[in-house]
Write a structure and sequence with these properties.
This protein has 75 residues and is mostly helical. It is built from 3 helices and 2 strands; from the N terminus they run αβααβ. It has one domain. Helix content is 51%, strand content 8%. The longest helix has 21 residues. The radius of gyration is 13 Å and the shape is elongated.
């Protein structure tokens, strides 16, 4: 099982890096990035994007004030 956990951690890190790079390419409107734009740029499932951003595993650039989760935010 440690191998599986290690592999999952590597995948998670890769998804975080992909999201960090996506922030450089997605439209930023008044400091706000849409979760749908991140999804279109990365093809990472929206639920996973929300989870990664909420877990604070992704470094959001300082010029991005927030990510608009719209209806995808967990309640």
């Amino acid at each position: 099982m440690p191998e599986l956990e290690e592999e999952l951690a590597k995948l998670r890190e890769g998804y975080c890096r992909a999201l960090e790079k996506a922030f450089e390419r997605v439209p930023i409107r008044d400091g706000v990035v849409s979760v749908e734009d991140l999804w279109l740029e990365t093809a990472i499932p929206i639920d996973l994007i929300v989870e990664l951003l909420e877990s604070e595993g992704v470094k959001i650039p300082p010029h991005v004030e927030r990510v608009d989760f719209g209806r995808y935010k967990k309640r």
